[in-house]
Amino acid sequence: MPIEPPIAGTDPNRSFRLLVLLRHPLGALFLLVPTVLVIYSPALDAQFLWDDLFLVRRNQLIRSPLFCLEAFRQTLFDNASNFYRPTQTLTFIANYWVWGMNPFGFHLASILIHAANAVLLCLVLRQVVRALLPPAVDTRRRADWTALVLALLWAVHPVHSAAVAYVSGSADSLAMFCCLSAWLACERALATAHPAARGGWATLAFVGLMLGLCSKEIAGIWLVIFGMYLFAARPGLGTRRARLVVAASGLLAVLFYLALRHLAPLAAVPPPPPKMPAKWLLMLRALGDYGSLLLYPKELFMERQVFAAPGLDNAANEALYLSLALSGVGMLTAFAAGAWWPGGGRGLRRAGAVWFLVGFLPVSNLFALNASVAEHWLYLPSIGFLLFLAGVSVDLPWHRLGLPNRAASAPALALLILLPAAALGARTWFRTFDWMDETAFYTQTVHDAGDVPRAQVGLAMSLSHQHRTGVAVEMMREVSARYPKVLSLRLNLASALLREGRGAEAKPILEKAGAEMIGHDNNPRETVAVVDGLDKVATADPTWPERRRALLASALQRNPNLWELVLISLHEPDGRSIAPEQALAQVGAFADAHWWHAPARFMVGSLEAELGRTAEALVAFRQAARLDVHDDGALAAAAALCVQADRLDEAVALQETAVRRQPDSPQQRFAFAQILARHGDRAQADQELATANELVRFVRR
Is 251 contained in some domain? Predict the structure, then answer.
C-alpha cells in the first residue's frame, strides 16, 4: 500500500533504517529474490509431470545446443499444436546441457526467472506509479514504496505457482522477463542523449521484445501496455519522434515474429467444445473465477473449467457457474466505479483496471483457446489487479484506523504490509508441495477439482505404476463410463487391464477403438496404444495383420513426424522385426527428415551394423552422439564396433567420452575396463574396474 514511512532522519529506530535500505533497488533485490527462493524451495525436489513428460522428458529437440536455430522451425508437442515457443525451447536446451534430465535444474531456472521478474517489476512499477500519482513533494518516495509492496505481493501470490513450480508453465514467466527487460531498456534508450548508448539500449529492447514474443503470444499484450504507458502516462519521455520510432519498432518486431511463426508447421486452432455457452457468458464466468482466485486463492488446481464438460450434468454446477458470472459482473462494476471515484489514487485505479482487462482479453474466451481458464494466465493481468488495489488504498480513510498517511511508526507499516504477504506466501508454500510428484499432484487435483477426467486417469496410472492395478482399473472404468465418447479414457482402461493380465477384458475395448479409427483423423498416440495392445491379445486373429497395416499406414500418412508410429511399424504383429533393409529405408527417411532426432539416428547405426556396414554405422553412431550431449549409448555402440574392427585407439577414445558423459554408470566403466585391458592399459583398466565395482556396491546400499 502506498503509505510511506517518516522522512529519512526523523526516526533513528533501526527498523526504520532497514526500511530505508529496502527502498533502494538493491534492497528490493535482497528482499524479493530470497523471499521467492524460500517460498518455492520445495519445488526444487519436484519431479517432471503433466506436460513435462512431452516437453522435457521425451523432447528430442532440447538434447543439444546444435538445435538452437532449429527451435525456431518447430512447435511444441511433436508438431501437433499451434504453440510456437522457441524461447522456452532454448531455455530447456540450456537446462538440459547443464543438468541433463535432473528436474532440480529445470525447477531452479523457473524459480530464478520468477524472482528476476519480481525485481524487474519493482523497477518498472517505480516509474509507472510515479507517473500516475498526483505531483507532490514525496511522490518519488511513495512510488518506490508502492512498487516494492506490489512486487512483493505479486511475487508471493499462490496463483502463480503453476507458472513457477511447473516446468512447462514457464512460458508466461519467460515472456514477462523478456518484455520487462525490453521495457527498461527502451526507457533507457529514450532517456539517453548519447547516440551510441541509445542505439545499444534500443537494440536490447528490440531483441528482448522478440524473445518475449517467441516465449508466448501474451508478449504482444506487454507491447500494448507499454505503448499506453509511453503515450498516455509518460508523454514527456523522449521526443515525439523518438516515441513514434519506438512504436514503429514494436510493429516491426511483431511482423518479424509472425514471419518466424510461418517457419514452423502450425496446426489448426482447436474447435470450441460442444455445448459451450455464449462467449460473453464464458467471459463473465472466467472473470469471476480469476477475481476469486486473486482475492481468495484457496482452491488452486489444473484443468479449470467454467462450462460443463461433455457427459457431465450441467445442473451439478449451475449454482457455481451462476456465482462466477455474478462475480464477473461485480468485478466489471468495481473497475468502473474505481475509474470514476475521484481522489489521488484514481490514476492508479484507471491504469490497474486497463492493465488487468487488456491482459485478460486474450484469455477471456472471446477467442478460441485450448481451455476456458487457467491459473498461469493470470501472470500478467494480476499486476493490473494489484495496481488497482493500490489505487483504492490511496483514498481509503486510514486515519479512522489509527494509521494516518504518514504512519506513526515503521513497525505499524511493516505489519500492514507483511500480514497479507505472509498469508499469501504461506499458501504458496503449501501449494508448491502439490507439484512434488505425480501421485501428490493428481491426488490433490482430484480432491480440489472433483470431476477432472485427465487428473483422475493420471492418478489411476500412477497407482498402476505402484502395482495397485486393481484400484487403478476400477477408477478408470468409472471415468470411462461417465465419458464413453472419450477414446483416450477407454484406451487407458485397456492399458491398465493389460498390465493386470486381464487381456480378455481389454480386447473388446481395443477392437472397438480400432474399428472407430479406420478412415478417421485420430490422435496418433491413440493409434499406437491400440496397435500395441492388440498385438498382445489379437495374435490368433487372422484378420489382425491386415487391419494393423491399414491402421498404421493411415496414421503414418497423417502424422509422419511421430517417432512412436515409426517404431511400432518396424515390427510384425507377432513381435518379429521386419527385414533390416526395409527397416533401414523407413528409419533413414525419418532420420533425414528430422535431422535432430538422436534415437532415429542411433537406430540407423544399429541397422547399418546389423547389415555389416561398419563404416556407415560408425558415422550414424557419431552423429547420434552429437545430437544428445548426455547420451552414452551411441558412443558405447560405436566403441564396440571399433573393438570388433580392431580399431582399439578409436574405441578407447569413444568409450572414455561415454564414461565422461555418465560417470556414475557401472556398465560404461566395466566396458571401458575391458577395452583398456584389450588395449594393454592394465593399470587403468584395473582402476576403472575398481570404480565400477564401487558404484555397484553404492547402488545396492
Answer: yes
